[in-house]
Specification:
The complex is a heterodimer of chains A (101) and B (490). Chain A has 101 residues and is mainly alpha-helical. Chain A has a domain of 39 residues: Orthogonal Bundle (Histone, subunit A). Chain A has 3 helices and 2 strands. Chain A is flat, with a radius of gyration of 23 Å. The N and C termini of chain A lie far apart (48 Å). Chain B has one domain: Amidase signature (AS) enzymes. Chain B is globular and about 60 Å long. Chain B is 38% helix and 12% strand. The longest helix of chain B is centred in the last third of the chain and has 21 residues. In chain B, helix 10 packs across helix 13. The chains are: A mainly alpha (101), B alpha/beta (490). Chains A and B meet through helix 1 and helix 2 of A and helix 10, helix 11, helix 12, helix 13 and helix 14 of B.
Chain lengths: 101, 490
């Protein structure tokens, strides 16, 4: 019984906003089935009394004074934009019928 | 006078510049000439910054002539893995999705190198977004191992290791998430250091898996790597996970000797799957370390067998989240035609990412999905704790651990590319230290009959870099392996 099927791979890719062609879906289904089979080795380990470790080194979340500081200028922030309009990043229309690009 | 830079140590070159024995500009021209002649066969560089390097070298030479201080790395040519963002210099992380990205800011580590006088020759090839163990996942071109051009240099910092091995620069920076500094150091026969998590700032280092990403140096010698680490390490207010403790004296430690140190030998790191020549070389190195005055102590890291699964669960989950930022809006590739924002995202990402990032995004999204989260990602975080506890318990019995770095020497280009799981399993000896956040170094401890380097890994407790450098420096001082050089490719 495979652990993952092509339909699930398509669903996950849609969640990740990642367009895959059918050859990629087929290959990933096969590869992920093997990888998930291996990864399941951790499932047999008893971790009932183990707390999750989210950081390698314990640290307190540091704070800093809330001061106005120099940051990127608008031109610097936009200099790599594939499409720019005046001082904003340009994207396709988000809500139908509201104008925009 | 111009020194022979082939096999030259970074610290010796820096001393020569400071003493006025040679000019930084002459070093830069010598390395640029080597890159021009040899790199077409090796593929280490993605971008060579001829004019920027010449300008920076001339500035160092002018300061020397004026009697001004130039910093501990004054005038020495180095290279940066293309994961360090560099202001005004294209930075791609080895990915087509960032082709053409010109960062408006500088990473802390590369900025500290420049402030210490080092000269960047350019940006170095890598597996796309640091995902890989062979450098074959670069979106641009593979890197060839200087010891055998038909073999991989390791990855993901394969270009950084190969560039030092081939003397295309005096030192480099890489990053290590599951072994990406140590494994290529092992396969190319150079020194690579993954410091304690948070010892070097991640600010301006393009993120792969944030809780596991460790910036660190490559050097020809242990002292070279120590000198680079002393410069790039230290607290950075721009990285809230960076450690505030003062930086150790790593160069001094590399010359301090190892008498009386307790060296743990974990039995789980000498298991099946290790090439016999690797095991023989590592056992001989342990004997040498024992003869140098260390006490060898058998120890156990009982959760080692779970480390690869744990690592791939956590790193893919974090990668799928980190790589969400590549959306075709703010920088990088954008698909030519999209009617809606959703389509813009999906098409841009489908076109821009290569096969390995796609595999990890899908796997990471799968393990984080509602209903699966606790069974996969939550489980992995708990096993990570057990793996870290193993190290803590072992370090009650010893000062450092010594193990092999990679179970095999360099493999052939294409040999493992078709089977991602087999590629992942080769990370067996390198994935646990980043999970625990502990420092680890790889150095050369011998060669196979076919002339391929074999790596020795020394692992320390958190912030135990000085203990690691003591072992590595003392071993290097008693052996000649680090002096062997690959032939320049014809």
């Amino acid at each position: 019984m495979p652990r993952i099927n092509p339909e699930e791979v398509r669903e996950i890719a849609a969640l990740a906003r990642l367009r895959l062609d059918e050859a990629e879906v087929e290959r990933l289904t096969h590869e992920l089935d093997g990888i998930l089979g291996y990864i399941e080795t951790v499932k047999g380990l008893d971790t009932a009394n183990v707390s999750p470790m989210t950081h390698a080194v314990p640290f307190d979340c540091p704070t800093r004074p809330d001061q106005v500081r120099q940051s990127l200028t608008i031109d610097e922030a936009l200099q790599n934009a594939p499409r720019r309009r005046e001082n904003v990043f340009e994207v396709p229309r988000i809500v139908p019928g509201t104008g925009g690009a | 006078m111009v020194p022979d830079v082939r096999g030259a140590s970074l610290t010796a070159l820096a001393e020569g510049v400071a003493a006025g024995k040679w000019k930084s500009r002459d070093l830069v021209e010598t390395y640029l000439d080597r890159i021009g002649r040899l790199d077409p066969k090796l593929g280490c560089f993605l971008l060579v910054d001829h004019e920027g390097a010449r300008r920076a070298a001339d500035a160092v030479d002018r300061k020397i002539a004026a009697g001004e201080a130039v910093g501990p790395l004054g005038g020495v040519p180095i290279g940066l893995k293309d994961i360090y963002v560099t202001r005004g210099i294209e930075t791609t992380a080895g990915s087509k999705i960032l082709k053409g990205f010109i960062p408006p800011y500088e990473s802390t580590a590369s900025g500290r190198l420049a402030a210490a006088g080092a000269i960047s020759l350019g940006k170095i090839n890598m597996d796309e977004f640091a995902m890989g163990s062979s450098n074959e996942n670069s979106a641009f071109h593979p890197v060839h191992n200087p010891w055998d051009l038909e073999r991989v240099p390791g990855g993901s910092s394969g270009g950084s290791a190969a560039a030092v091995a081939a003397s295309l620069c005096a030192g480099t920076l890489g990053t290590d998430t599951g072994g990406s500094i140590r494994q290529p150091a092992s396969l190319c026969g150079v020194v690579g250091v993954k410091p304690t998590y948070g010892r070097v700032s991640r600010y301006g280092v393009i993120a792969f898996a944030s809780s596991l990403d460790h910036p660190g140096p490559f050097g020809r010698t242990v002292e070279d790597a120590a000198a680079l680490l002393e410069v790039i390490a230290g607290h950075d207010p721009m990285d809230s996970t960076s450690i505030p403790q003062p930086v150790g004296r790593y160069r001094q430690a590399s010359k301090a000797g190892l008498a009386g140190m307790r060296v743990g030998v974990p039995r789980e790191y000498f298991g099946a799957g290790m090439a016999p020549e690797v095991e023989a070389a590592v056992r001989a190195a342990l004997d040498e370390i024992g003869r140098a005055g260390a006490n060898l102590v058998p120890v156990s890291l009982p959760h080692t067998e779970y480390a690869i699964a744990t690592y791939y669960l956590i790193c893919t989950a974090e990668a799928s989240s980190n790589l969400a930022r590549y959306d075709g809006v703010r920088y990088g590739h954008r698909t030519a035609e999209a009617g809606t924002l959703e389509e813009l995202y999906a098409k841009t990402r489908g076109e821009g990412f290569g096969a390995e990032p796609k595999r990890r995004i899908v796997l990471g999204t799968y393990v984080l999905r509602a209903g699966y989260y606790e069974a996969y990602y939550g489980k992995a975080l708990r096993v990570r704790r057990l793996i870290a506890d193993d190290f803590e318990a072992a370090f009650e019995k010893c000062d450092v651990l010594v193990t092999p770095t990679s179970p095999t020497p360099a493999f052939k280009l294409g040999e493992r590319a078709a089977d991602p799981l087999q590629m992942y399993l080769a990370d067996i000896y390198t994935v646990a230290p980043p999970l625990a956040g502990v420092p680890a170094l790889s150095q050369c401890c011998g060669f196979t009959g076919a002339g391929l380097p074999i790596g020795l890994q020394t692992i320390g407790p958190p912030l135990g870099e000085e203990a690691v450098f003591r072992i590595a420096g003392a071993y290097e001082a008693r052996t000649e392996w680090h002096k062997r050089l690959p032939k320049d490719p014809a």
